[in-house]
Amino acid sequence: MNQSPQDLQKWLDELDLEEDGRVPLDYIGEIQQRLAAIWDTLKGSQQAAMNGRKLVGRAEDITWQPPILCFTMERHGGTVMGSSRATLQEWRVDLGRETVTIERENRYRQLHDRQRPVKVQSIVERLLEAIRNERRDEPGLKWKENSVRVVAVELFPSATQRTMEERRKRLWAVLIDQAPMLEAIGWHYNAETHTFVREISLHEGGVEEEGL
What residues are paired with 101 via a beta bridge? Predict the structure, then answer.
């Protein structure tokens, strides 16, 4: 579709719109196509990694108040990092000046249910109890002979990337605070490797003192 901003403006002026300039659903698809065709010619159209192809099927809440065409776009950049919300950007196209600006992008749309909050303190208490009692089938603990490592991914298996990072930070912080509770029974926590190492006494190591 070859057309100029002036062609689009002329076509929009001929539409039978509401008094507030809101575009009826019947026209949305064609406006998306026509705007996409001229998008790359407009100054400022490359903001926020935008391009004309993204308009088709996605531009919504379109209004026309000559020479200004406004619409909303749902952007999903945050969902790549695990966010459950999409950002709603409000775009303003001045067909007279052939410019594009983002007017607002501080609204959000919930795409799916948020993950339930996790009580990290309770998880740490359970892990410490399992180590104290040498309960080797406790999820989130990887045992070796005299050490046990905390495996965060096993504790939060369904977490998104962003949520996992947040929960893992909270987990490590609480562990550092609570781990000294096990020192009295010989378990010492290494915060760099997230591992508890048991101090072996001479008796436990099988070493006996020789008589004189």
Answer: 92
Cis status of the peptide bond prior to 180, with omega within 30 of 0: no
Nearest partner of 127 among 71, 88, 160, 174, judged by Cα = 174
* CA 30 – CA 58 distance, rounded (Å): 12
Query: Helix, strand or coil for residue 155?
Result: helix
99 CA to centre of own chain: 31
Longest Cα–Cα distance in the chain? 111
> pLDDT tens digits, residue range 31-45?
999 999 999 999 999
For residue 188, what are the contacts with CB-CB under 8 A and spacing of at least 6? 182, 196, 197, 198, 199
In the chain, the percentage of residues whose pLDDT exceeds 90 is: 61
Q: How far apart are the first and last CA of the chain?
A: 102
- Choose among 161, 84, 156: nearest CA to 118: 156
